[in-house]
Design a protein that fits this description.
Strand content: 25-35%
Number of domains: 1
Structural class: alpha+beta
Number of strands: 7
Order of helices and strands: EEHEHEEEE
Number of helices: 2
Shape: globular
């Protein structure tokens, strides 16, 4: 199911299709009781509403504050201000009875066509900066966890 998130768009992956994503994303499911669910639009929008502030707080812990500034790109590492330039895939997973939504966000410019709407997307870009963000949102605690930023480095 397609969903609009601000000026960007995403897809919610149905529970029946979610198992194929587990191995590809290497979701943390070892030794865990795992099942899948299909997040409702409202669930995704609730998580999206908290995404900006979470990334603003956590991204500087993963990217040195001056990593891009030294190259004349002072705002480049502020991915929270660039969220509209990322498409998203959402997978609902239940791990040990806790509902989570896994986010796979990737820069619009690394995707050609509509395959991203039905297939797990892992762009591999050299010299492309921050082009993929992955994280999960715990529906019980209303909080994000496991932030991963794939960085191709500055141009």
């Amino acid at each position: 199911m397609e969903i609009k998130t601000g000026k960007s768009s995403g897809v919610i992956i149905p529970a029946r299709e979610a198992p194929q994503w587990e191995n590809i994303w290497k979701l943390p499911c070892k030794n865990a009781k795992v099942s899948y669910w299909t997040p409702a639009k409202e669930d995704v929008l609730k998580a999206e509403a908290a995404l900006y502030n979470y990334l603003k707080a956590e991204t500087p812990k993963l990217i040195a504050p001056n990593a891009y500034e030294n190259m004349g790109m002072k705002d480049y590492g502020k991915i929270w201000e660039q969220l509209d330039s990322y498409k998203r895939q959402y997978v609902g997973i239940v791990i040990n009875n806790r509902k989570k939504i896994y986010f796979n966000c990737f820069a619009k410019w690394v995707i050609v066509g509509d395959d991203w709407k039905t297939e797990p997307t892992f762009p591999d870009v050299q010299g492309g900066g921050i082009y993929q963000i992955q994280l999960s949102y715990d529906m019980t605690t209303s909080s994000f966890e496991k932030l991963y930023i794939k960085n191709g480095g500055p141009y």
